[in-house]
From TrEMBL:
Source superkingdom: Eukaryota
Residue ranges constituting the EGF-like domain according to the UniProt record: 26-52, 54-90
One annotated GO molecular function: calcium ion binding
Full protein name: EGF-like domain-containing protein
PROSITE patterns in the cross-refs: ASX_HYDROXYL, EGF_1, EGF_2, EGF_3, EGF_CA
InterPro entries found in the cross-reference section: EGF, EGF-like_Ca-bd_dom, EGF-like_CS, EGF-type_Asp/Asn_hydroxyl_site, EGF_Ca-bd_CS, JAG1_1/2_dom, Jagged/Serrate, VWF_dom
SMART domains, per the entry: EGF (SM00181), EGF_CA (SM00179), VWC_out (SM00215)
Record organism: Mytilus galloprovincialis
Lineage of the species this protein comes from: Eukaryota, Metazoa, Spiralia, Lophotrochozoa, Mollusca
Amino acid sequence: MLKRDIHISNDRSNESVTIGRAFIIYNGGRCIDGENWYICECANGFAGPDCRVNINECISDPCTFGSTCVDGIGSFKCICPPGRTGTLCAEVAGKTPSPLSCLFNRRTYPDKSKWEHECNSCSCENGVVTCSQIWCGPSNCLNNSIYVGNVLVCSEGQTCVIQTDKICFTPPCVPWGHCEDLRENKDTIPYHVDSNCESNSPQLSNNCAKISLIFDKSKTPAGVSVETICNTIRRLPVLKTLSNDQHVYVVCNLHKVRLNAVDILLSVEATKSNNQIDATLKTAIDNITQVISHKQTGSSALAAVVEVE
């Protein structure tokens, strides 16, 4: 409590009257008295001329994911809905990040964990994410009710060209389109391979290897496309070692002559000055050949392969 004296002068009698007034400061506030002025310093969580106003810390809506904010004295508390935890309910219950966890593609993975992302294998080691570097192939730009994957939106200056007949191996296939440049009428799919690593190249470069798969089409399931076969090969474990240190590209095309064959081209970015094929690349293509020949892919389409050239 603060007591202040107010002096009133009487002009006639030259007398001065002192009237005492008491000011009450609430909630632990402190009043500082000055010459004809005073100011109140309020405790944390209170405001107003006499510190009677309780500040609502929930006014900024700090709690997340539908949680309830409970105002306190200079603080607040969030009551989380089922499945959420943390000060602001921003964390998933039971999945609190560990000190060495990894954040990848907006998900948190614990230390020493492994997972698959598209056609690549990833792992978390001491807070660092490492993934194999296999190109997962082109995306379909043709929007239709049958295709269940993500539809690619072509860039400005490109158009979606139907490629279903060019990539369909055993009809009927899902409608498929590739983005092509309008001016050059050229396929702009980012294969990242040079001109000497194409199925019709007269001579392959030393960073490129090729095999041809001969199928018994009577045993091949309907609806299999070239990309179906290619995506299965991209996911083979034998490619993971090769793709840990460098980018790997697997491109597949229908054979130019044989109607029951598909060309598989495997390439890496690293090149050598001599004409010898990259040793690691050769090992990888040999391993792929062995896995397919021994029917170890787990794929019904590749199980119909009768010969590997």
